[in-house]
Amino acid sequence: MDDVLEIAERWSAEGRRLALATVIETWGSAPRPSGSHLLVDSEANFEGSVSGGCVEGAVITEAIDVIETGAPRVLEFGVADETAWQVGLSCGGRIRVYVERLV
Question: Half-sphere exposure (CA, 13 Å, Cβ side) for 24?
Fold first, then answer.
């Protein structure tokens, strides 16, 4: 599989508008380590993973908004917050993800 950053270069050359989500902190049994990436385009196509499927849907939704607004954000998911069952991070971990638009 291609590196997510190589895919970002290719997609950018194709004129796609992109956001990059990066795991910045984990705690407990979070399935992906810090530094893991998820690349998202404005049509919800994506490559990579920030959680092994637990929070990708929520991160993709936020990434599309970041593409539109240009405002980066930090997302937090874990079993102790109100989104725990919506996003499926019931494994006991906690994850923080930074989402930024790529120019």
Answer: 12
Nearby residues of 54 by Cβ (< 8 Å), 6 or more positions away: 31, 77, 87, 88, 89, 91, 95
Neighbouring C-alpha atoms within 13 Å toward the C-beta of 5: 3
Backbone angles phi, psi at 52, to 5 degrees: 70, 25
Instruction: Pull the structure tokens for residue 81.
Output: 């917050």
Report whether 23 contacts 34 (CB < 8 A).
yes
Alpha helices, DSSP H only, in 1-103?
Answer: 4-13, 56-69, 84-87
User: Where do the structural domains in the chain lie, given as residue ranges?
Assistant: 4-102
Look over the chain and give the mean of its residue pLDDT values, rounded to a whole number.
87
Give pTM, 2 decimals.
0.85
- Position 78: which residue type? G
